[in-house]
Amino acid sequence: MLTRASATRNAAPDLAARIAFLSRPPSYPEPTARVDVVETHMSWVFLTDRHAYKLKKPIRNGWVDLRTPAARRANCVEELRLNRRLAPAVYLDGVPLVLGADGRLRLGGAGEAIDWLVKMRRLPAERMLDHAIHSRCVRDDDIRNVVAALCRFYAGCAPIPMTPDEYRERLAAGIAENLGELPAPDSGRAGEAFQRVCAAQRAVLRRDPARFDERVRRGRIVEGHGDLRPEHISLEAPPQFIDCLDFARDLRLLDAADDLAFLALECERLGAPEAGRRIFADYGALSGDAVPAPLVHFYQSYRATVRARLALRRLHEPAVRDPGKWTARTRDYLALAAAHIAHCG
C-alpha cells in the first residue's frame, strides 16, 4: 500500500534516469521478457508481460499540479480510488520507486520513496472494445454487458446537488471554452466550423431549456467516468472500465446520458455507429431512462467539439508529432459535431 514518502534527496536520479530504469525488464519483481513504453499526455506507462505501471509526469496544467513527489503520490491514491469503482480487478496498488542506501533504484522495498507508480493488471489487447470494433467482431451481447455494468454503476451514484440553471450554465461555459481556443485566423474552414457548431449548440440551450432541466430534476447528474472511450473498455466478464478522468472532479460531474453519448460518439468515429445506437437502446431498456434522441445528439455534438479543441491543442504543441494525424482528427470531430447538432430539431 502507499505510505508517506520521506523528503527527496538532492542526489535523487533525474527523470530520464527513472524512465531508463523502468524501461528495463530486470527492474521489475515479476519476470518479463520485455517492457513496452507508452507515453501519454500526463504519464509514462511501462507494460510488462502481466502488468502496467503508470508513472505520472511532473507537470502542471489548468487542472492539476504534479510537480512534487507528494502531489504525484496523492494523485496515484486518487486514481486507484476512482478507477476501482469500475475496474476493481485492474487497479492493484500504488508502488513506490525507492532509492536504496546503495544509491540504486528499486520498485518497492526498503529505501527512500522518490516517486510513485500505479500498478495495474495488464488487460488483453484483443479484448478491448476498440480492437473488437476494428476487427468487426463486436457482438450485441458485448454491448449489453457493457451497458448493464454502467447502469449498475450509475444507479449507485448519488445525484449531484445542482440547480437546473447551474447545469445549463456549466454547459454554456463549456461551449465558451471551446470557442476560446479557436484555431488561428488563417486556418479558415476549421475556425468557421467551430463558430457554426458552437452557435448552434448555444441556440439549442436557449431554445429548449426544459429538456436539460428535466435531467437535473430526475437526479441524472452524477460523478461519472468522464472519458468513456472504446480503448478504455475491456470486454471481459465482467467488463472493466479504465482511465476515468481522475485529475479533475468537475469534468466527471455530468449527465449519465452524456457519459454514454461520448462512448457512442467514439464508436461512431471508429466506424461502428450501430454500436452507439445499441448503447442507448440497451440503456433505456435496462435503466428505464428513455433519453430523448435530440438530447443525445446535443451531448454528442458538444463532446465532439471538446475533442476537436483538444486535437487542435495537440496540433499546436511545439514538439508535435504527426501533425497530419491531429489535423485529420480535428476535421473528423468537427464533422461529427456538425452532423449531430443538425439532429437536435
Task: Please provide a written account of the structure.
This protein is an alpha+beta fold and 345 residues long. The protein has 12 helices and 10 strands. It has helices at residues 15-22, 69-83, 129-134, 140-155, 164-180, 189-207, 209-217, 249-252, 256-269, 273-287, 293-315, 323-341; strands spanning 36-39, 43-47, 51-56, 91-99, 105-107, 112-121, 221-223, 233-234, 240-241, 253-255. The strands form 3 sheets. Strands 1-2-3-6-4-5 form a 6-stranded antiparallel β-sheet, with helices on both faces. Helix 5 (164-180) runs antiparallel to helix 6 (189-207) and helix 6 runs antiparallel to helix 11.
Which helices and strands, and how do they pair?
Elements: H1 15-22, E1 36-39, E2 43-47, E3 51-56, H2 69-83, E4 91-99, E5 105-107, E6 112-121, H3 129-134, H4 140-155, H5 164-180, H6 189-207, H7 209-217, E7 221-223, E8 233-234, E9 240-241, H8 249-252, E10 253-255, H9 256-269, H10 273-287, H11 293-315, H12 323-341
Antiparallel strand pairs: 1-2, 2-3, 3-6, 4-5, 4-6, 7-10, 8-9
Helix pairs in contact: 4-10, 5-6, 5-7, 6-11, 6-12, 9-10, 9-11, 11-12
